[in-house]
Amino acid sequence: MQTVLFHSTIFGPIHSRRLGTSLGINLMPDDGKICSFDCLYCEAGYNAQGHGTTGMPSRDDVAAKLEKKLAEMLNSGERLDVITFSGNGEPTLHPDFKGIIDDTVALRDKYFPAVKISVLSNATRLGNPDVAHALRKVDNNILKLDSAIPSTVLALDRPAPGYDLEATIAYIASFGKQAIVQTMICRGEHDGIAVGNTGEAEINALIEAYRRIGPQEIMLYTIDRPTPETKLCKVPREELEAIAGRITDATGIPVQVSA
Fold this sequence. Notes:
Radius of gyration: 18 Å
Structural class: alpha/beta
Oligomer: single chain
Helix content: 25-40%
Order of helices and strands: EEHEHEHEHHEEEHEEHE
Number of strands: 11
Strand order of the largest sheet: 1-2-3-4-5-6-9-11
């Protein structure tokens, strides 16, 4: 079974296809995965690998490790474009997420005031006021919407019980231009059943959802590394660009393509 990608709380910097030179923050265990989605394409593997043994890092531990790394980078003259919350699961599940964002903003301002802070989230915790408040403080509030059709979300993202797609779209829409919507475009099969979001009905439904949300930007990307479901396919750049063109023509929203 594919296992977690990140074995530390602070990782990188790495080059992100979408964000540039990025210093990562993993709020999940460094030997397990905790997520409210169980996506077929997740580079960190399936949730079945378990939560591990180390637990989530404390707020104080995150701040101390981040400050140490930022100070080292500043002293050595390293370049940095963005600090990105990502890692082995959904960062907003951390119980001290709001406080950690406050600490990160303060440390960014101290060491690299021009650097942006990004959060990659699956948008399942937007109904929590503390989470929503924290996300309004970051520069790049990147929220996932892989499909606007419930059956596709259930098949591709496999959310935890109780997930409500309509409510999630409404929560994302409440951010408006404070949000960037990120959509994974892929197709293939799982357990012998076709799955994907490249069909005409899928794109039309996404366009309507994007119109409703009105984000500052849409990020379309596709598979770049091995995935737990090996029968998913990377979508060619030409096809992604064609989809992006349709979306921009229909909504006026800029679309960034990564392939």
